[in-house]
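S.,

Sequence below, as promised.
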Amino acid sequence: ATESTPQIALVGKGLTFDAGGYNLKPSGSIEDMKMDMAGSAAVLGAMAAVSAVKPSYVVHGIVPSSENLVSGAAYKVGDVFRSLNGKTVQVMNTDAEGRLILADALSLAQRLDPRWVLDAATLTGAQGVALGERVAAVLARHEDRDLADRVHRAGDATGDLSWVLPLYPHYREQLTSDIADLKNVGGRMAGTITAAAFLEAFTRDAAGDPAYPWVHVDLARPSFLNAAYGYRPKGASGFGVRLLLDALAALGEG
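The prediction came back faster than expected:
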């Protein structure tokens, strides 16, 4: 690699256990929350196999990692979080924590001057409500829709199925805060989309322009299955590794 070699980045959410913080998850929803690191597992799996793609570019794997528990030092509902790039976030739900660590990782990725960035995350329960447990959600800005379509086609090719959801600018309005730059949740409507709209705010530079082309994959339900199907076992499914590898090959072509 040289200084002129294109840089790309895979970002994976690594919540090793998510109890929900002070918005504590109820019994029945908390037991399997070790799966909240499945985005990072997909990124690490893809990085382990990336040599098979023989990329003509440098691939960076970025894994922000934490646990979300209750403690005397934990963020409380209503607290304001200051992110790596200086944006402030009003924490309206402590169980929407993964997007906070992803926000910092997406800001960090700007320092690489990447050709494009793809993040994978078990981000929302709403993803499963919308698409079920076999199909992930893919979102991108309108100007990056061709990249989202390539990721979607990678899913068709690998069996890690996905569907592209809209990310119109008006969804960002649901994140408006009176005391911070934005809230970390947007209410009940379009939860998967407003979560992506939150992340999108951290893919922009100081002037507010897109810092790099970006695609978001919400694989919350496909990553941890209630029942086996095909070659996938019940529980942790490995969803996303093949998708990311195929997307690396496809996205690296243009």
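The chain has a mean pLDDT of 95.

Coffee later?
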